[in-house]
Amino acid sequence: MCSYIINTKLKEFFMFEKKISLEDKDLFEKYIYNNNHETSGLSFASLYMWKDINDIHYEIINNHLCIRALNYLTEEGKPQHFIFPPLPVGEYDSDTFNDTLKILEKNFKKDNQNLTIKLAPEKYINYFKETNNSNVLIKEDRENFDYAYLSDNLATLKGRKYQSKRNHLNYFYRNYSFEYRPLTKDLMEECIHLNDSLIENKTFENDMAEELMSHERKAIEEALYNMDTLGCRGGAILINDKVEAFTLGYKINPDMMVVHIEKANPSIRGLYQAINQQFVQNECTDVTYINREEDMGLESLRRAKLSYRPDKMIKKFDIEFK
Hints:
This is Phosphatidylglycerol lysyltransferase C-terminal domain-containing protein. The chain is an alpha+beta fold. It has helices at residues 25-31, 44-49, 94-110, 125-129, 151-156, 163-175, 188-200, 207-225, 227-230, 271-283, 299-307, and strands at residues 18-19, 57-61, 64-71, 80-83, 87-88, 116-121, 136-140, 146-150, 178-182, 233-239, 242-253, 256-264, 289-291, 312-314, 316-321.
């Protein structure tokens, strides 16, 4: 078993003063892209677009990238900080990993809070178990599981399992003259306008839902206006020279694209299926998997994501230190 003893030569307290910026992309890629991580929330694009809303800061501790964020949706109703799983540059090493956890525990206790690590991928669970710490509680976070699909399946929609999708798609192709275009700066304002119109016509269940939509709007703007620097790929469908659907993705590792944004005019039958297929066919030919993120525990979203027949679910876990 691992000793779980802190290296006394390491700095013990960190202020997490470094707020994520576009200049950090290469640094983050060293820890994330090159180590084949699949968790959608760890993509640099996702971290950047939500940086203000979730108060995302980071430190390099013991050669681990440690990202701190603010969780607004706690059971207590009080926002609390958490840590994404600490990420080493290369292979996992139990001693340095345990030292890093110990430092993080001290930092959180200094602020009168227990260390909580969220969105930890399944492969990390054994690492945490090796700490031999009986005060660690590991919980499966089903509502944040990512849905990963084979790109070939989404590009072709072949087979009986996709019959209903093809019905909607074929209706769109038969009844609409459209143009698919890769997303470029000249389309940004139209995309923002489409998203704003979707928000204006949406009925919210409560104030929190409306506030979350407002946060999402800001995050979408951050991603769109900085898509080239972020290294995102996107696409739009125009009907009568007007943007009616757009999407934006980010290649989180050499073999997986994460779709972070997908918006479409809901009054146009088959448009969601079309933007999904067109994006995969045109922008995702170099990846095997398309990660379409989580369902957030929403039944309607869960049904929609399951209907596309995911090839695998990317499990995530919460780790709480008592």
